Amino acid sequence: MPIRTTNRNRTTPMTGRQIAGSEITAEAVYMRRREALRAFGLGAVALVAGCSADSAAEDGAAATQEPMPGTPLAIAERGKYVVADPLTRYKDVTHYNNYYEFGTDKGQPARTSAGFHAHPWNVEIGGHAEVTGRFTLEDLLKPHALEERIYRMRCVEGWSMVIPWVGIGLGDVLKRFKPTSSAKYVAFTTIERPAEMPGLATRILDWPYREGLRIDEAMHPLALLAVGLYGRELPNQNGAPLRLVVPWKYGFKGIKSIVKIEFVERQPQTTWNQMASDEYGFYSNVNPDVDHPRWSQRTERRIAGEGFNLFGNRTPTLPFNGYADQVASLYAGMDLRRNF
Amino acid sequence: MRFFRDRVAAFKPLFFALCLLPLAMIAWDTFADRLGTDPVAQLEHRTGIWALRLLLATLAITPLRRLTGRRELVRFRRMLGLFAFFYASVHLTTYVVVDLGAYWAQLGADIVKRPYITVGFTAWLLLVPLALTSTRAMMRRLGRQWQRLHKLVYPIALLALLHFLWLVKADHREPLVYCAIFVGLMAVRVGWFRARARVGRVVEGA
């Protein structure tokens, strides 16, 4: 199977030096940030913070007036993958999570995941590859430079966010293990730690959570192994310390807290597909033309921006979540209604 | 001169205010920007859940009356029913105006194609004639027909529960709690119905 590595990212046209949307700070946002910082008694720091807003992360965070916990990450690259839409606030990204291992209510993971130990962390690599075994998270990340990528995230439930992730290309990591020709798919597994994950006590899903990609999907440059968001380490409720982000697929494909990656020959069993195969396909590419059997996927409610925004959040859902130019070729000749 | 006819009449304004309390709390949270990350979903959930609670409350009146022997309870039922309709209407309006907004034309397709919206909308539609015929004058005019018409409350409750069950992705515990309450309220009725039938047979046999 050919592995696509030549697909250039075209989320935004690259002409000369790219100016990320994040570099242009709207006056209103800037003023609010000044106010916020003053409110926190950090007047003296305001000027410095205002000058160093070279990251989308800083903008969104300051405007929320929320201090961001977590260790800042050393980010080597920014602005290559951006989205013109406003970012979702840090507070919203981290307090509205579908992570059933910590409870099915979206507010629960932020409340119940504090006791989860994301360090130390090991990932088992197995299956059809020349290099396999157990690796520490540090070993896994060491050869790679961290990158900030701003992606849209479309949940299968009909809402969406815009999130500045920090991570490394999934394909770049996978290649190091030299998958063999039998590696047609990649299967991922989430950790199952009942003592630290109260949601596991209820058999809502068939634990542990499992997801999978076709090998060419996994090797696609847009597929990201995220270790952070808003410039900091992932909070537990967002899938610390290592999670998948596949921006052209529904959010549930982005499996969290990964402990196992396997190269397999057959399409792997995935959790939501197993739970209701007529509702959640293996591919689960964002597609406004294929409705969920119980609700429409034609439009979505965007959770982003500042302040009181009750009206006008609905926006059309785009094929492949707006990444059709980059990924549609992966599915050439396939009936996307059948392979949903 | 007494201001109210009796104690029930005196309690009604308070009861009315009590029924408005959830709306006031929802409004308060809305304007205080305390509805959380997805305020529209919260509005829909909270208005819908109160419509369902009040609907089940109307169905609890008869069993409660029989258990407590307090016949005056029935005089609160109309208000409960009308408030159930009120919250269901706010719920539907929220969905159409706030959630769909500029995409309100999607409503037609949603009603036809989405089972959970179909049943939810049907439940609301069936509540309309009940609300319209809730006046004393209509009760008099419809006579026996009124009783039969208002039996619609049972299928309405079923549709509302189905609406709730179907919109949930995997964790059905919350809607199942309401289903259990409904089943309980129905089981009580079946019990009485059978007891009455038995008494009837005994009387006939004698």
Question: Helix and strand layout, with pairings?
Answer:
The complex is a heterodimer of chains A (340) and B (206).
Chain A: H1 27-39, H2 43-51, H3 56-64, E1 77-81, H4 90-94, H5 108-112, E2 122-127, E3 133-136, H6 137-141, E4 147-154, E5 159-169, H7 170-175, E6 185-190, E7 210-214, H8 215-218, E8 224-229, E9 232-233, E10 243-245, E11 258-264, H9 271-275, E12 299-302, E13 314-316, H10 324-327
Parallel strand pairs in A: 1-4, 2-11, 5-12
Antiparallel strand pairs in A: 2-3, 4-5, 5-8, 6-7, 6-11, 8-9, 8-10, 12-13
Chain B: H1 7-31, H2 39-68, H3 77-100, H4 106-113, H5 115-132, H6 136-142, H7 144-150, H8 153-167, H9 173-205
What's the count of strands of chain A? 13
Largest sheet data of chain B: none
Indicate the overall shape of chain A.
globular
Tell me the β content of chain A.
15-25%
Helix content of chain A: 10-25%
Order of helices and strands of chain B: HHHHHHHHH
Mean pLDDT of chain A: 85
Task: Supply the number of structural domains of chain A.
Answer: 1
Uncertain residue segments of chain B: none
Q: In angstroms, what separates the terminal alpha carbons of chain B?
A: 53 Å
Distance between the termini of chain A: 21 Å
Give the number of helices of chain A.
10
Shape field of chain B: globular
User: What structural class do helix, strand and pairing data of chain A support?
Assistant: alpha+beta
Please outline the major beta sheet of chain A.
8 strands, mixed
- CATH top level of chain A is Alpha Beta
DSSP strand count of chain B = 0
User: Looking at CATH, which topology of chain A would you report?
Assistant: Sulfite Oxidase, Chain A, domain 2
What would you say the CATH architecture of chain A is?
A: Alpha-Beta Complex
